[in-house]
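Convert to structure. Protein one:
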Amino acid sequence: MFSHIFVGVADFDRAMAFYRPVMATLGIAQRFVDPSRPWAGWQSSPDPRPLFLIGRPFEGEHAPGNGPMTAFAASSRAQVDAVHAAALAHGGHCDGPPGLRPEYHANYYGAYFRDPDGNKLCVAFHGAVDA
């Protein structure tokens, strides 16, 4: 459904220090990084898309919103917990601790956090039990 998701960041080095461990904990490989532009991308597997990209906004301004949110799929509840912990350990801010959210569906286990620029992110597991 998606080709890519791009999240604008104000401080590229700070963003990389946050996203590298978060994406590694999710098991998502970095596809490229170009500090001169600056931007970086992580690639889905086994397909080359969708991509998750970060970088300086093309318009040159950064204004994270409260409405937009990017949600990553986790392979287990334990991975949700680990990604949330990695995010907080690398400059992120908790926007909702890991836990069941039955208002979405009976098995929804998710966590919410913001990156150092204030972009809202989620990691969620939808299975009945850990894989």
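Protein two, convert as well:
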Amino acid sequence: MKKTFTVSEVAEYLNVSTDSIYAMVREKQIPHVRIRRRIIFSIEVIEEWLRDQGRSQ
């Protein structure tokens, strides 16, 4: 099973636009890793982040 998402994959997973993901990355609102010019997201970390977002509201 795949362990990472690209920007477009995480946007589809979260049902938002890629522009929203890039903005969240710029503003450090979503956990990510930058490898040179690529931005990747750990599926496990994104799912944990989503759970945390739900608890904080």
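The chain has one domain: 4-55. Residues 35 and 44 are 18 Å apart (CA to CA).
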